[in-house]
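Blinded run. Sample ID left blank on purpose so nobody reads anything into the name before looking at the predicted structure. Input follows.
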Amino acid sequence: MRKIIFVLISVLLSGFFGSCSSTNKLAEVQEKLPAEKTTFLDTYVHAEDGKIFTCYIFSKITRVCLLNDDGSFGSDFDPSSYEYDQNTTELKLKKKLNGGTNVHIEGTYTNPPHLILRGMASDVPKPCVMAKGKMLHEGEDYEFDFGTGKLDFITKLDVDEDSFLIMWIGETSEILYGNKIEEYQDEYNQLMLMWSMQMANNTSGNVI
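Blinded prediction complete.
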């Protein structure tokens, strides 16, 4: 970053100015390029199969440690003691942990982000995807593959700073995943209600 700033200042002092249109085009191109962002995730060992999953796909895991009940960090795992599968988001530890054990994971992800939505019911094969109080649209804001459960955002989304909420129907209950939901709680509630009614109508139509 310092090198880029130095070059820009040197160009300005030399009197070589780029046009505003060129600058705007460069900004548009940079905005569309994927960017690496850092984040963390607190999750747990699933009791039914002893597995650990992350919802969004990390491009690189930088830290894995136990998470105590009071929220403090426990012992760290050596990088050689685990493997991460980006196709399923499963974190495979060589050491077996008891079901319900809390785990803290840090790493980087690509923005726009990619997620794996697990456990989606086959009769409602679409998620409800919302951000900043608005409904996002498949094909414009994201792509979704029911076969793999992979949701690829087209537009950028900061999973730590932006408010978003994703809901999908599991085999036994609704599953919610999001960040800063309270900022648009009323809007999300209304959008989820509208989406649920639409899915119910579609399902009824398929049965008939």
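Unblinding after everyone has recorded impressions. Residues 185-207 form the longest helix (23 residues).
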